[in-house]
Amino acid sequence: MMRGIIIDDEKLSIVANKNVLEATGNIEIVRVYDDSVQALGEIADIQPDVCFLDIKMPGANGFQVAKQIKAIFQQVDIVFITAYQEFALDAFEAHVFDYMLKPLHPDRVAQFANRWERHQLRVQGIHTEPVRDAESLQLDPQICVLGGLKLRTPQGDNLFIKWRTAKTEELFSYFLIHPNSPISRDKILDALWPEQIGLEGNAILHTTIYRLKKALKDTIFEDAITYSDASYLFRMNLQSCDLYLLEKELRQLLPADERSAQRLNLVLDLFKGSVFEERMYEWSFGVREVVLQMFTRASHELANYYARNYDIANVERCYLRVLRYSAFDEETSELLLKSYAQRGERAAFLRHYKIFKTMLDRTYGLEPKQSIQALYEQVKSI
Fold it and tell me: Could you tell me the CATH number of the domain that includes residue 202?
């Protein structure tokens, strides 16, 4: 039986969440809190298996509280329960176990509970499932934002949309990153037209929405946009988009082991480059950085698995895949150089060091960090 606590500033939400969680039959909510300070003071004594935590709360937000909880009781798994889809990528970055949207649905809770139980068995070294055939599970999203915006029809054909203006395409891209939750008109204006205020801004947004709906006519997005209470809602199936498919798969497959490594390799191939790639939307910079870090961390985790199994060729492939999209990543370059050095691949080491050093110098006027230079001096002298 999983023992959990709930932290949420809304008492009605606490009651609703507790009822759905306990209805699974294998979750016991041992304490509930509408005050995170009180929860922090008692969690060491309670030692729950899982903390079900809201994100938007007065005072410290859920991310801050999660960090404090982990500092007190490292073994607890954090599960965010929130009304806001927009925090999903941030939650992954914070290493939480799961992320569920309000109102909780029994099927979604059952999915979480089953995955948590499988995780516990894996931690204990007990394997109860056959290894999944990685090749049999298709990864063919209709909406691709990694490496640039590309769309496909349900039949798999390329879908070309004629955007009336650049802002029409940008608004569509903005909706793809903020799906399934209402977005206020003011928030959209602040992101896409920060220089426009008042009635003029509203008119520009209204016109661009009209153009967007017209462009999306006769596509799977035809009825995706609705408006209510000065907010827009863009509905989409998250698993039809490479970004959210990547996030979901990594959450399920990590940490890498003999059961997940093959599938993880396929999943990491979903990453084709930065979010929207050449479209340097200012509002997308934060998402671009989070997704790149997520991809890099997962690649390093897979490399660590291969290293534990002395599969050095795949270790180096993992690092090279990161450097293909993040050429100035010093940590990854250093790990790759160390691998070359350990294998005695002097030529490969010197070649990569020269390329990396030249790029840093020409682009930023910098030298590699001291530990890389020291490694170079060691290898050079051999």
Answer: 1.10.10.10
Phi and psi (nearest 5°) for 234? -115, 115
Rounded Cα–Cα distance for residues 260 and 250 (Å): 10
State which residues form the domain around 21: 2-123
**Distances 280 to 95, 106, 144, 275, 340 between C-alpha atoms, Å:** 27, 40, 16, 9, 35
Helix 330-343 to helix 285-308 angle, to the nearest 10 degrees? 20
- 255 lies in some domain: no
The residue with tokens 């596509």 is 219
Instruction: Give CA–CA dist 167/109, Å, rounded.
Output: 39
Out of 25-39, 67-81, 86-100, 311-325, which region has the weakest mean confidence (pLDDT)?
86-100
Q: Is residue 137 part of a domain?
A: no
- Among residues 4, 239, 1, the alpha carbon closest in space to that of 143 is found at 239
Determine the Cα–Cα distance for residues 303 and 156; give it in Å rounded to an integer: 32
Token pair for 381: 């002298």
**What mean pLDDT comes out for the span 42-56?**
94
CB atoms within 10 A of CB 138: 7
Q: Long-range contacts made by residues 159-166, C-beta under 8 angstroms, separation at least 24?
A: 159/219, 161/215, 161/216, 161/219, 162/215, 163/215, 164/211, 164/214, 164/215, 165/208, 165/211
Instruction: Look up tokens 């929405």; give the residue.
Output: 209
Query: Does residue 190 lie within any of the structural domains?
Result: yes
Quote the CA–CA distance of 31 and 11 in Å, as a whole number: 13
* Same domain membership, residue 152 and residue 228: yes
| pTM attached to this predicted model | 0.66
- Write out the DSSP string of 38-64: HHHHHHHHH--SEEEE-SS-SSS-HHH
Same-domain pairing of 91 and 171? no
299-316 confidence digits (pLDDT tens): 999 999 998 888 888 999
Helix axes 36-46 and 62-72, enclosed angle (nearest 10):
30
Closest CA to 244 of 209, 290, 283: 290
Domain total for the chain?
3
* Residue 71 covered by a domain: yes
**Tokens for 293?**
């870090």
Residue type, 342: Q
